[in-house]
Amino acid sequence: MNETLKVLENRRSCRKFKSDMISDEELKAIVRAGTFSATGKGLQSPIIIAVTDKKLRDEIAEENRKIGGWGEGFDPFYGAPVILVVLAKKEVPTHVYDGSLVMGNLMNAAESLGVASIWIHRAKEEFESDFGKNILKRLGIEEEYEGIGHCALGYADGPVNSAAPRKENYVYYI
Ligand SMILES: Cc1cc2nc3c(=O)[nH]c(=O)nc-3n(C[C@H](O)[C@H](O)[C@H](O)COP(=O)(O)O)c2cc1C
Known about the structure:
The chain is α+β, with helices and mostly antiparallel strands. It has helices at about 5-10, 25-35, 55-70, 95-110, 125-130, 130-140, and strands at about 45-50, 80-90, 115-120, 145-155. The chain has six helices and four strands. Strands 1-2-4-3 form a four-stranded antiparallel sheet. The two termini are about 25 Å apart. Flavin mononucleotide binds near residues 118, 119, 120, 121 and 163.
């Protein structure tokens, strides 16, 4: 198996991160890989907001926790120090697919560098609220964007689970 196929097969979701920040080099390389994903008509509808500021990271986690309905003190990002929020321009018909593919690139690029990751949901609800809208406003983003997902990043604190067996009839050859 070549290195790319190994990365694609070995990537797993991490649910326990160390608090250590990943290097700037790692962060930039992962984000760059995200920006090179395929997009419908090549329109590059997604944007990535790379959050490394602990205060904002914690505020997003708190918002996410409330949307998810978990009790106080639960961290939906499992301690990850970096959150990459992927959003995509609503007016583009393929925006959800485009943003999802960016998410895939981010997670696989992370795996290739030994950085752990997980997709965390509820970005849509977050960025429909005033909380999320204010983040966009602060960044001078005025168009309508839909939250697609959060890619939480960091170093794994302990071994990451192995993959569940692949279901039968996943693939049909004809
Ligand atoms: C669209 C999507 C949303 C997800 N949202 C969450 C989430 O909010 N919290 C979480 O712990 N895992 C979340 N995950 C991670 C999945 O649970 C995980 O990918 C799945 O269990 C398979 O494990 P693997 O990623 O290790 O292959 C999400 C994954 C996807 C693709």
